[in-house]
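Continuing the series of single-chain predictions for the mutant panel. This is the parent chain; the variants come on the following pages.
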Amino acid sequence: MAKRAVHRRARKILGEEPVALVWCGVHKPIPTPPKEAHRAAGGGRLKPGHHWLLYVGAVVFFFVVVPVMLMDKLSTGRRDRPNARPSGSGRSRDRDRGQDPTNGVFDGDWDLTAGQLLLHWYGHSPNPKRLVMLARDRVCIATSPRRRLSPTKADDFRIVAEFPLDQARVEGEAGQPRGFATFRLRFADGSWLEVGRLGEPEDADHFLRTVNG
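Parent structure:
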């Protein structure tokens, strides 16, 4: 379960004991919004920030691993060159993916609540983790301003969005496989946002049982 620091901070900023809470994140890349919508929302970032070690790893990969792979492929490419034409299955998969430009992340309307929330998602913090908290009369989303955090010990998160229960509700099935569970934030204007990567299995199980209760 999330540590005392998380619950203590949640209780402080909510002004009451949270009914349920869970760390989560947008579990797929945010689709590319129209330029006008992105600009109107302030042109904020649409991807999470990364630790500097990731950039070091990328440099090593592209300047060391990739050249070695290319040299190996060039040396064997002639022998392994296929004679048959590739099947159309790859193109069919590309078409299938192209039929869902939102990638199942949200309803697709950038002007509605879910779309506007996505446009500001990483503007509040480069960290991909968000804490969704259920209170008696509202749903709150909080985040830490830090690039890195420990979800079990974070004590500096703040609310970045909140919605009364007549404007937002959480939809999610209990008993989903740990590590693959998702839930949706559905808003009164008909828009929805799906999140996953639920942290702390006990918190996730309790959260999903609560929204199903």
